[in-house]
Give the backbone structure.
Amino acid sequence: MDYALFVMQVLNGLQLGLLLFLVASGLTLVFGILDFVNLAHASLYMVGALVCASLTLVLGNFVWALLLAIPVTALVGWTVERLVARRLYGRDHLDQVLATFGLILVLTTLAHLIWGPQGISVPLPSWLKGQLAFSDTLIFPIYRLVIIGAGLLAALGLYVLVTHTRLGMLIRAGASNRQMVSALGVNIERLFAIVFSLGAVLAGLAGMLVAPITEASIGMGNGIIITAFVVIIVGGIGSMKGAFIAAMLIGLIDTLGRAFLDGVFKLFMSSDAAENSAPAVSAMLIYIIMALVLAFRPKGLFPPKVR
Amino acid sequence: MTQPVLEARSLVKSFGGIRATDNLSLTVLPGELHAVIGPNGAGKTTLITQLCGSLLPDAGEVLFKGVDITQRPAYERAQMGIARSFQITSLIMDMTVLENVALAAQAHMGSSFRFFRSVRHDEPVLSHARACLARVGLAAEADRVTRTLPHGGHRRMEIAIALAAKSELMLLDEPMAGLGTDESQDIIALLRALKGEQTIVLIEHDMDAVFALADRISVLVYGHIIACGTPDEIRQNAEVRAAYLGEESEGV
Amino acid sequence: MSATNYPKLTLLVMVLLAVLPPLFYFTGQPFYLDLATRLTILAIAAVSLNLILGYSGLVSFGHAAYIGLGAYAVGIPGYHAIYGGLESWGLASTSGWLHFPLAMLIGAIFALITGIVCLRTKGVYFIMITMAFAQMVYYAIVSIKTYGGDDGLTIDVRSEFPGVSLDDPLQLFGVSYVVLVAVMLLVRMMVNSRFGMVLRGAKGNNERMVMMGYNTYRYQLTAYVISGAIAALSGALLGNFTTFISPEMMDWTRSGELMFMVILGGVATTVGPVLGAVAFILIEEVLSTFTIYWQLPFGLLLMGVVLYSQGGLANILGQWRARRALRDASQGGAAQEHKL
């Protein structure tokens, strides 16, 4: 096996995993603390990407655009929380699913109105465009390494936030007993708004990071939302640790599967059969993994303790 | 010695650091009304859930008519002849009173994988259900939606459902919970009429009811049975008085 | 029985549905016949979803997958009938006798396999897992390039039955309508049977049903499989209706639309799914004549329905009736008091 190719695909898998973690962490945070299922989470991913894309074109600088897009996305998240989410707390999860489904349509169409149907390319500054050559064959784009770095930084930041800050303590307390936290005099409304906006920022950040590679477009959320759900189902809904581990697992399995499954199949199948079946199976791989995990752990790998 | 209908042997169940059921052993003889009493938090509901199968013990065994049912799921135990009423009313609120009881009856009267005939024409089930409703005094309410019944009606429905199951063992978890004196008297009379027909395990707080109805009483304290005997024996048991009856023993 | 049913409304809707579309066709407006056919096919899928969502309380957000599977069960054999291949499997055929049963079989098998996994979970997990499995099918089909992948199958396939030509839009509508009526009757019969009562009891209070001695999992799985087969049947009809069989048919957003039809129309009623399909199609049509951005008011409407209504269209009528009955009763009571 080509060693260099393998390492590159592992790095790609890590990158995907971290992006998935950013999206999934927001989703699981919002579900764990607010008990709110937000189908429109991916729309925030899309909004982040589009806002950053526009700002890049206006300011001419990707990094500044990203830094500015973050508070803008937080604001969008905050608005969604005030206008929509707030009215749905405590309601049946089905109602939340349906309402946020409607919200997706609204946000997608609004995005269509503002940004148009075409994707927007996000140009990278020259210092991020190059490649790093570890060896003759092992070449990796710098930007992808940057994504991995940024993702790890964000994960670390989240960890520190949740375990070492007052806000984090409130988040953890709210996760295990909402009423108690509120009875203790904490402004629950403000806490929820902050958590929701944080989730929006995480999703948006993922979108911003991925946009230079894939273009910022209104359809970009569709693919990632289901994968994010698979991640939090496998990890355990409400668990950050679960989201991280599951995201990395799924990112790696998905990437390596797509890259190498036909090779693996060719070991015990005819070349034709392998080439015909591998794409379909690798597409289904993460769902098969999800089904297997659920067969043994219906609540995911690391479900948070019951309230 | 007659084979007990139900036997719990050294049951243990812990939640986190707390031992809700601590080496609990209990025997229920056929035809008796066996009351289980104990202070709040003694673990009475945890006991019932382990007996009926919604909870599996960490250690120990549960035997029903000599058969080990410890690992059997709840629906199997119900099929074998154990019926349970809930302390916190658990009924199908949007269905009528009759529909609730008919479902309980249906479970023991043939297969429910029947797709074509309407239950409206299921005479055997319906007449059995109506008979059970009549016994608990709810015959007139048969077509009312369960949600519209007062609390007392719900408590009677719980008993009707247990009756409809044609069970051999009824586990009644505080059937008089939340009822006033008059309604409680009605339930006591009902239970007295059922004695002997069925084996009944009765968990109750109401001491009048317990001492009026029980053939034997087990006293549960901190997950463990500290005493088991006839009502007289229990009344005079010093340990029980200390742990539970306390100052009330003065009047007894 | 407490299954809410509105016999007069149901009759009215079904008669209108039988009569109006052919009328449009014969008066030179075939567009409305096509609309009605699409509506009828979606209504079949909605009825199947109502069985598990409305009556059994199983919120499947992946029902569109069955529609897609059913459509491809028509498309793939049709493709091979034209281009060859798979003859040894007997799957190169345009015969409806192959397509329709194959569709239902595939739907049932997929429902069985995914149901075994899904039904061990509940609540939000269940919703998300059904969504994930549906998306899995979507990605799997997209990755098979032979059948067009992303672009779908653009062959014009019709399932051939002796004596019936599904090429003729009127006949296609007729067949779809008959299937709809048959399915509605079947589901209605089932929900009032012993089997259906167990399902409905489990929806109301699963723990109670288990304590009564029912292995509710088995009943729910059975309902899930039946529902999948029926939805796949609607997919086979859809495959005949459109000339273009695409993976988009099973996108999770299609599942969401199907759910809305059931909920908007009124869960756990016989006519609800049909009303929901009518409402959905009409709204979609009307709004899209005004603007290409029709999904915006549509989304707002959907959100509004969730936030402010309970029970859907059919049950709104039930609520009016109940409120009137209450008013009558209280007036009667007041009259009594006056007498005293």
Q: What stands out?
A: The first helix of chain B runs from residue 44 to 52. The CA atoms of residues 87 and 173 of chain B lie 5 Å apart. DSSP finds nine helices and ten strands in chain B. Residues 247-252 of chain B have pLDDT under 50 and may be disordered.
